[in-house]
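Bit of a strange request maybe. I'm writing a small parser for structure token strings and I need a real example to test against, not something I typed by hand. Could someone generate the tokens for this chain?
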Amino acid sequence: MANQASDYHRGEMDIHEQVATYNFVMALTKWGSLAVAAFLLFATLWFCTPAGFVGALATAVVAVGVGILVLRGGGEGH
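Reply from user aminoacidic:
Good idea to test on real output. This should exercise your parser:
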């Protein structure tokens, strides 16, 4: 049984779909985390501080802007 022929050949499988799915999930995680963080910042400042709606909205917009700059920058991977 140890000498059976196999159809598997290491490194020859087409993995483009797996790579595309992985990149999609990573992008969704990255941008979704920014959206959740901005919403939590907005809600916390609006309801729990005297900043009010406008102050909370302005701070959340700035946080989203900085987040976009940070998350879009680079591009170099591991």
